[in-house]
Amino acid sequence: MMSPNAAKLEALVGAPRRADAPLDEGRDAVRLVAMVEAAAVNSSPTLVSGGFLKNAKQKKVRGYRRIDWLNVGAAAIAIMVAAGAATFTGVQMASASPTQGAVQILRADESALAGAEQAAAASKARLEEAVQTAATDAAALRTALGVLAETEEQPATADSTALATVTQAVDGYTTALGEIVIPEVPAAYKRGKVDTGSLQSVGDAINRVQEASVEVDAVAEQLRAARASVDALTATFTTQLATFATSFAGHAQTEIDEYPVAEQEFRDAVTAAADAITATPLNTPMGATALAAYRDAVIALHDDDYRARLEEEAERESQHQNNWQSPPASEEPTDPGTADPRTTNPGTTNPPPVVDPEPDPETQPEDDDTFF
């Protein structure tokens, strides 16, 4: 009989389902029993054929290796020598006095100081050479720029605005180079008198070496800073020169357009000289040479244009003279044979002949009868 609670539950969710047993229940157990019985029947040992044993690879039996007692002895001796050397070194280190260790430190510091002094001296020499070379090149460039300006004897051979700008840049660069301070390298360190048997004396020498090293390091840092300043100035100056060089292409074209009568070879020479300036670093001796070549090319262009214009003017004047001296086509020329060649004007009568006057008898001197 169903309880009241079960009846309420069945009324809410429905009657419980009845689980039916699967149709293949127990089949796995039957299959397992069959497998065990089959294994029991085939449990007899397997025989291996003789051919298989014959073809199997036999493992080679390694024989007894003979010991090389000579090598063993040599190795033992080497081990003993290494152990002895290590023991000797340890004894030496243990027996070394503090003074000897301080002397070794002093020598190492002195060697490092000597290397730092040589490096500082080399850096100072390279920096001085760089500043001197830059100043020399800037002075040569300043001279080359001066000949491009307009004077009473020649016209300007560069863009006036660009020339004024780059001239100011050269002057500023030269001034900045002159303001570079190159520090002096301290004098080379000398040990002096040191009592290598006194720890106090050796310690004082080590302190002096360290103080000298600090001073050399400070100078090396100042040299690096000065070198960086020079490199920065040169980089800025190079950029300004490159900007100035680009102005020559336009200036060359303007010159060619304004002087069209010159021969083509002179026009080509101006263009080639402008291209050479663009491709040449102006803060070098080659830059000054390129500027001078452009100036000469422009002046040659002007001269050839002037020469060609004079020739054209002379040719026009000659043609004008020929046209003025030639008679008009409507008038007939007078025949020279119809006029007396002694007349001054053809078609007029000849003037009367000129007769010399006779001398006056009264003015004639009388003969002098006086004989000498």
From TrEMBL:
Keywords: Membrane, Transmembrane, Transmembrane helix. Residues 311-372 are annotated as: Disordered. Residues 357-372 have a biased composition (Acidic residues). The chain crosses the membrane at residues 69-91. This is Uncharacterized protein. It comes from Microbacterium aerolatum.
